[in-house]
Structure formats: structure tokens, C-alpha cells
Amino acid sequence: MEIEKEWMEPCQCPGVHGGIRKLKEMGKGFVHGALAASGAVLVSNPAEVVKTRLQLQGELGSTRAYTSTADAFTKILRQEGPLALQKGLGPALLYQIAMNGTRLGFYEPVKRLVQPYIPSHYWASVTAGFSCGALGAFIASPLFLVKARMQAYNSTASALGPAAAATAAVGSQHDYVRHGVFYALRYVYRTEGVAGLWRGVDAGMARTAAGSAVQLSTYESLKSSLRNLPGGADHPYIVELLSAFSTGFIVAAAMNPLDVVYSRMLNMKVVAGGGGGRGAGGAGGSGGGGGGSSYTPYTSSLDCLVKTVRNEGPKALWKGYGAHVLRLAPQSFLTLILLEWIRRVATT
């Protein structure tokens, strides 16, 4: 009976309880991060559609559909309707849950983990942000792939006639995305395999890790600096607003070159026929070559970077920067502000 009583008593092991407490904390952080980022993406997704289109146009010598960020917004609205500016919203929400839930949820625990080894608070923040960003990007990469293909897809291009369609659509066109995110994931798996779902993940991890390291460390540094200004401590909401808004511009600058490469890697189509690398695919999604084995326009993220610079010049790596700022400024701003608010609500 004494043995049974001992088994029935709750475990008094400090290590076990500490581990459970940390898991609960990380789970809570995941939920907070996912909710904050999902709320922000409802506002920022239209700019993401425009940014993706701008980054894909002119790829490997293809035609340009838009002359500027404003022109892209106008043409998408006129040719495809208002709902086209929310293309890819489904996978965008799922991506934010998976990626930012991981990135923002694990950030504080990871930062505390590395702080004993990295005395500088700033560099501990950079390390934690970089690590969590890379992990989140890897986990969520298939969802970003489907999102990019949905946002690039112009369902009305074929109705404009062959000549107009060639300039209305940018990048490879993946018709199957019309059937939804889960159908698209299954289709990519069947036709391109597991590697296809994680295509360009190295660029995606580098892009998100860099952006995450810059975003979280810059936000904390700005917030700390502004609090130390006269009257700063008396206006915490203004400090958070200014810090979050300013951070968006800096993050866009850090991410854009890798973002162009990532968008192109995700949207490229496996093309039947030999002679790899001859075109990225237009309105119909083809990109060169006659018979022979299949190929992709790019063999790797590095190959994509080299071909982009060689064919379009270094400025091509800054394509869509204006739209990127329009997306990241509110995305970063709203995510960080919502995260602060959710944390306050959760602790009251």
C-alpha cells in the first residue's frame, strides 16, 4: 500500500516541473506569435501580392507587366478585381501561424538560453532571432511556396488573348493553385516530390533569419533607447509604435535581395525538354526547350542569384522594394504591437 501511495503522489522533481513550465511557456509564446502575425497579414497581404509580381517580372528576359508599385496595384485591380489583391491569403495565414508562431514563440526562451554564453544583450537578441527565424522558415517553406504561386497566378490572362496574356502574366503560371492550398500541396508533392515542397528553402531560411535577427534586435534596441529619452518611460505605447514602425523599413532593406531569389525559386516550374535555363515561363508556364529530360530554370538559389544579376543587373535584387516596404512596415508594426497587446491581455 505504501508503494501504491508513493506512485500516486505527484512528482516533486524540480527538473521535471521546470521542463514542463518551459514547454508551457514556449507553447504560449507560439500561440501569441501566431495570433499576432495572422492579424497583421490580413492588412499586409495585398502589398505582398504586388511585391511578388514585381519581383518575378523581367525574369530571364521575360516581358515586364508593370512599371511601378502603383501601376501594379492599378492593373491587378482593373484586370483581376479587388479579391485578386488577397490572393494566397489562405496559405499566408497558415504560413504566419507556422513560421511566426515558431519564430516569435521560441525567441524569448532561446534568447535566455544563449545569454549565459553571449554577454551582449544585443548580440544575444540577434542570435536568438536568427536561429528562430531560420527554424520557422524551414518548417513553413511549403506553405510559402504555394502562397507565392497563388499570388503570381493571373487567372484572367488567357481571356485577354495571346498577345495581351504574354504581358499580363509574370513568371511561371501554375493553374492547379485554383483548387486551393491543400490540393496545391498534394500536387507539388506528386509532381515534384518532397524536394519540390522545400524548393529554395536555403534562400528562404537565410532571408527569414536575416529579417528576424534585424527585426527583433532592432525593435528591442529602439524601444530601449526611446524609453531612456526624457518622458519615454511615461509613454510606453508611443515608444512601441515608433519602434515597430521604424523597424519595418530596416527589415525590408535587409531581406529584399534574398526575397527576390526566394520568390523566383518558389515560382519556377519544372519544364519538359532539354537545354536548361532558357526562360522562366510566361502566361502558359512554359520556359523553353524541346524534347529530352525535364529541367528547371535554376539549379540552385545561388544559380538564381547569379543569373538574375547577370541578365538584369544588380538592381534586379531590389525589385519590389517599394511594395516590400508597404508590406513589411505594417506587417512588422502590427505583429509587434499585437504581440505586446496579446501578452498584456494574457497576463491580466
From TrEMBL:
Keyword set, alphabetical order: Membrane, Mitochondrion, Mitochondrion inner membrane, Repeat, Transmembrane, Transmembrane helix, Transport
4Fe-4S listed as a keyword: no
Domain of life assignment: Eukaryota
Locations listed in the record: Mitochondrion inner membrane
Solcar repeat residue intervals: 24-113, 120-225, 235-345
Pfam families referenced in this protein's UniProt entry, alphabetically: Mito_carr
A GO CC term attached to the entry: mitochondrial inner membrane
UniProt entry tagged with the keyword Transmembrane: yes
Membrane topology category: Multi-pass membrane protein
Cross-referenced InterPro entries: MCP_dom_sf (IPR023395), MCP_transmembrane (IPR018108), Mito_Carrier_Antiporter (IPR051508)
Family of the protein in this entry: Belongs to the mitochondrial carrier (TC 2.A.29) family.
Protein name: Mitochondrial carrier
Protein source organism: Gonapodya prolifera (strain JEL478)
Lineage, broadest ranks: Eukaryota, Fungi, Fungi incertae sedis, Chytridiomycota, Chytridiomycota incertae sedis
